[in-house]
Specification:
The chain has 208 residues and is mostly helical. The chain contains nine helices and no strands. It has one domain: MetI-like (MetI-like fold).
C-alpha cells in the first residue's frame, strides 16, 4: 500500500459490484445451509437424547470433539472427496459445527419443559438461541474456506492481502458483520412470531 493510497477506494468498489454481490450470495448460502442441515439432524438426535438420557453424554462428547477440530483442517481433509473450491467442502464441516451447537440446544430446550407437557414447540426459544449462535459463527467461518478456494466474502480478504490493498478487506469485514447481524435479527423476529405465548407472558408480568 502506497503512503498516499486512501484506506477505501470507492472506485474499486463500484467497478467490482457484481463480483462482491456474487461473493455475498455465496457466503450467505454457505453460512445458512449448514444451520438448516444441522437443525434437521439435531431435532431427531436431540429428541432421542432427551428421551433416552443415556445417549446424551456419548453424543455430547463426540460433538465436542468435532467442534474442537480446526475448520481449515476439515476443509483440507475433504478436498479429495468433495473437490477443491466446492461448496460442499465448506458446508459439510460447518454442518458438523452447527450440529454440535444445536443438539445441546434441543436437549436443553426439551428439558426446560415439564415432563407432562414436553413438546418441541415450547422449547423453541432455547433452540432458536442455539440457532443464533450457529448462524453467526457459520457466516464468519465461511471466510476460512477462501484458503481452499471457496470462502465467499473471505475471497476479498485473500485478494486484499495478496495485493496489499485494504479496500477488499474492509468491504469483506463490513459485509460479513452486516450479514451476521441481519441473520441474527431475522432469527430474533422469527422467535417472536413463533412464540406468541412468551410475549404474552412478558406483557402480563409487566402489567402485574
Amino acid at each position: 500500500m502506497r503512503p498516499d493510497e486512501p484506506l477505501i477506494r470507492w472506485d474499486w468498489i463500484g467497478r467490482n459490484r457484481s463480483m462482491i454481490w456474487e461473493l455475498l450470495v455465496d457466503n450467505t448460502v454457505m453460512g445458512l445451509l449448514p444451520v438448516l442441515f444441522g437443525l434437521l439432524l439435531a431435532l431427531p438426535i436431540g429428541l432421542a437424547c432427551s428421551r433416552w438420557r443415556v445417549l446424551y453424554q456419548p453424543a455430547s462428547g463426540l460433538l465436542n470433539v468435532v467442534y474442537a477440530l480446526p475448520s481449515l483442517a476439515l476443509f483440507i481433509v475433504l478436498i479429495p472427496v468433495t473437490g477443491l473450491a466446492e461448496r460442499a467442502t465448506v458446508i459439510i464441516p460447518l454442518t458438523c459445527y452447527a450440529l454440535a451447537v444445536l443438539v445441546p440446544a434441543v436437549v436443553d430446550g426439551l428439558r426446560s419443559v415439564p415432563d407432562h407437557v414436553r413438546q418441541l414447540p415450547i422449547a423453541v426459544p432455547v433452540v432458536l438461541a442455539g440457532m443464533r449462535v450457529a448462524t453467526v459463527s457459520g457466516i464468519s467461518l465461511v471466510s476460512v474456506g477462501a484458503l481452499v478456494g471457496r470462502g465467499g466474502l473471505g475471497g476479498l480478504f485473500v485478494t486484499g492481502w495478496q495485493l496489499r490493498f485494504p479496500t477488499p478487506i474492509i468491504v469483506g469485514v463490513v459485509l460479513v458483520v452486516l450479514l451476521a447481524v441481519a441473520a441474527d435479527g431475522l432469527l430474533v423476529l422469527a422467535g417472536r412470531l413463533l412464540t406468541p405465548w412468551a410475549r404474552a407472558r412478558r406483557q402480563a408480568g409487566e402489567a402485574a
